[in-house]
Amino acid sequence: MATTPTPSSAPATPFAGALRQVDYWWTLYLRTWKGSVVNSFASPLLYVLAMGVLLGGFIEVAPSELEGATSYLDFVAPGLLASQAMTIAFGETTYPVMGMIKWQRIYFSMIASPLTVSEVLLAQFGFVAARTLLACVVFVAVMAPFGVFASVGGALGALLVQVLVGLAFATPVLAYSAALKDESGFAVVYRLGLIPLFLFSGAFFPVANLGAGLEALAKVTPLWHGVDLTRMLTLGQVDWSMAAVHVAYLVVLAALGWWLAVRQLTRRLVS
Amino acid sequence: MSVRRSRVDAVTDSMIHAAGLRKSFGDFEAVRGIDVDVRRGEAFGFLGPNGAGKSSTMRMIAAVSPVSDGQLRILDRDPATDGPEIRARIGVCPQEDTLDTELNVRDNLIVYGRYFGLPRAEVRERADELLEFVQLTEKAKAKVDDLSGGMKRRLTIARSLINRPELLLLDEPTTGLDPQARHVVWDRLFRLKQQGVTLVLTTHYMDEAEQLTDRLVVMDKGLIVAEGSPLELIATHSTREVAELRFGVASEGDTHEALVGKVEDLADRVEVLPDRLLLYTTDGEETVAKVHERGLEPVATLVRRSTLEDVFLRLTGRTLVD
């Protein structure tokens, strides 16, 4: 080489460390994007058609019973959007994390470089956020022709909320995955975590239908906060004080999850 | 032969300095107080069986495993506080492959080089040079899963060189490879050594230690039991030659153990292995001849030079690979 070789260095900031991994996540994404795009285009379309249009066709109730939505399609669309953000976050932080610890051991090669565990996680959560946003952009584009968005601003706001929903799930789930000995623990988190949340957090029916006790329980779940916030934005009926509570809940969960994820992964990798 | 430098150089050129270094996991002490000094340009080895504490030591040197007790300085820095700075300047070839099977061969090098803060164009250029160096240029676009074990190991070595490390750590670089593949790896490592890269490797193969290291320590149960160049260790702890005798146990009606008394005066020392006797002697052929003169009929005999395996057997009473 004619030029003097660049000396390798430690990152000056955690953010700089995370940026060094952009090429990794981008290269990885290029290997898998085709499947994920087809999936993120097809599945919202199928859900909206089946649940919103066909099933929703049987449901004729006053908007007061559908949290203000004028049709079941308008009601269920934001629920499906937030559920998708949750599902992607689970997908990216369960089996792939186990693979990076146990099967391919990618994490070990990463921390053998100047990168630290926090920097590795910062980049990974950045990737999860980008993946969630991209899939939700596709989802929103598919749903828009059905007239489920009261305004463009509401649709854009709903997209940003999905990034927050994604991170609020990704961080604690990754912490859980990093502590698991083997993949059998994932069945538990899917069956007792993801599926009940998906079904009972107000995505498909108003949580008021659950009765007082269960309604209170549903309202402490993270997905309900995500669904309710998304629904306010897509319906254009924002209760700002309640919206602030939702955002605060999700931000606190993401922050707590981040702290746990760094702790658990450090325990696993640095011994 | 190790290059002896002046006292001043030895201090400023210190790549690794460990004193009373310990590592424990709960109640288990993997490394129980070792002193190691490695200078720039040396090829240094940790020889020992599985569980001797070699890998634990290597992980501490790689600044990914906190020191439990004692002193450790890598490139004259403290791994507890300067981990990222140390890791920027060293290369690590782990015992188990940690290649990304989702990426192709060349991309594995490129994304890894980026972790060291190197510009994209430079990393590409280095990746191509390194693929050439480890003879994988034709496999640049191949999937990692399609590579043989030896090729994967060479790719891992190439990856560990992407930041032009001053110190290269190799944990069992050829374990699990067939003899042909091992020789290719050794050849590449030997070239690195000639280029002046400081090599530190662990191995439980004595021939690997003999071929690649200037100086080595023999580890057993978390402690260093001997230190020196391969030749020094053999001269100090063994004889020039070894006569190996294998007796047909059934026909003689005697175990190898029982035969020791009949031959022990013919050698400096006799070791009993499950399948043979080792007679440590200056002239192996002569010793074998004397064995025959006594009417003993071994079914197989072999005369060879002493190796580090014999040193290890002498020091610990056990073989390296069991």
TrEMBL record, chain A:
Keyword field: Antibiotic resistance, Cell membrane, Membrane, Transmembrane, Transmembrane helix, Transport
Protein name, entry field: Transport permease protein
Start and end residues of each ABC transmembrane type-2 domain: 35-268
Superkingdom of source: Bacteria
Family classification: Belongs to the ABC-2 integral membrane protein family.
Membrane topology per record: Multi-pass membrane protein
Places the protein is found: Cell membrane; Membrane
Chief site of localization: membrane
Transmembrane segments: 41-59, 71-91, 132-150, 156-176, 188-208, 240-262
